[in-house]
Automatic annotation (TrEMBL):
Keyword Repeat: yes
Protein name: Procollagen C-endopeptidase enhancer 1
Signal peptide: 1-19
Organism of origin: Folsomia candida (Springtail)
SUPFAM superfamilies reported for this sequence: Spermadhesin, CUB domain
InterPro entries (alphabetical): CUB_dom, Sperma_CUB_dom_sf
Keywords noted in UniProt: Disulfide bond, Repeat, Signal
Length: 263
């Protein structure tokens, strides 16, 4: 390469480097939601979404729906656009982190913003003991694109009974995983969750790898168990029809995981 070509190449590389997006740069919200979800529960892997369920139509008593949002930026804003939900119903926003579920916040009034600093968020619809009318809400992601731990896999369990083996294809689970298993049968019930096999890294307070069980009660997911190593916990009945199994692993030592069933 001659000198002119080298200068041109250096100038070009400099231009590419300075034009490349910088990490942690603030990112504004989308002007309008980019995806629309209309099912009871589901997956929202997007920077914004309109989530509506039975808007203007009826929803059966005791219905539970869980949506999981995995957003690209660090701050998520949720807002209720239209709603026929009653005082005894609720739409709850729950941030997820490597240290577990945070306290849920109820989205109850139109226009109210619930804003959470977490890239992964669960939305839970809890209908009281009477039929109700549907709603529409919106979600917008903004802020930096951090590389903080995030939900790495999830399965929303909606059948009346079922079972789960994790990892699904055998072998060992990975490092830095957060795997989420909301259990919210679409036909209202009180499922009982039982673990039949546990093989996780050992820690005196399960500070390395762990499984947590949360039981929905009185407006929040309450942690009722945390375990690791070979510990099989006592069974848990989700008396209010919803619960969550949350598995997380740290950056070293992986084992073969766990099996559970519920009915
Ligand atoms: C909610 O957030 C939006 C966007 O930032 C803002 O325009 C609106 O005024 C906020 N609403 C309330 C009640 O603060
Ligand atoms: C686990 O679930 C599958 C269907 O998802 C079913 O065929 C199987 O019998 C279940 N196993 C147990 C042990 O319940």
């Amino acid at each position: 390469m001659n000198t002119t070509a080298i200068i041109a190449l250096v100038a070009f590389l400099f231009a590419v480097a300075t034009a490349a997006p910088q990490p942690y740069q603030g990112r504004p919200e989308d002007p309008e939601p980019v995806v629309s979800v209309t099912t009871c529960g589901g997956h929202v892997d997007a920077s914004s979404a309109s989530i509506q369920f039975q808007l203007g139509g009826s929803i059966r008593a005791d219905m539970r729906c869980v949506w999981i949002v995995r957003a690209p930026y660090t701050v998520q804003r949720f807002s209720l656009i239209s709603s026929g939900l009653k005082e005894t119903d609720g739409l709850y926003i729950t941030a997820i982190s490597s240290s577990g579920l945070r306290n849920s916040e109820k989205l109850s009034t139109l226009g109210q913003n619930v804003t959470v600093p977490s890239k992964s968020v669960m939305i839970t619809l809890i209908v009281g003991h009477a039929p109700t009318v549907g709603f529409k809400m919106e979600f917008y992601s903004s802020g930096g694109s951090s590389v903080a731990p995030d939900v790495t896999s999830y399965t929303i369990l909606t059948t009346a009974k079922g079972n789960m083996t994790y990892p699904r294809n055998g072998g060992n689970y990975g490092s830095n995983e957060i795997a989420l298993f909301p259990i919210a049968p679409s036909v209202p019930g009180q499922p009982t969750l039982r673990f039949t096999r546990v093989d996780l890294e050992t820690g005196t307070s399960c500070q390395f790898d762990s499984i947590r069980i949360y039981n929905w009660f009185d407006g929040d997911y309450r942690q009722v168990a945390i375990f690791c190593a070979y510990t099989i916990p006592v069974s848990v009945t989700f008396q209010d029809g919803a619960g969550v199994v949350l598995f997380s692993s740290d950056s070293s030592v992986t084992r073969t995981g766990f099996d559970f069933q519920y009915e």
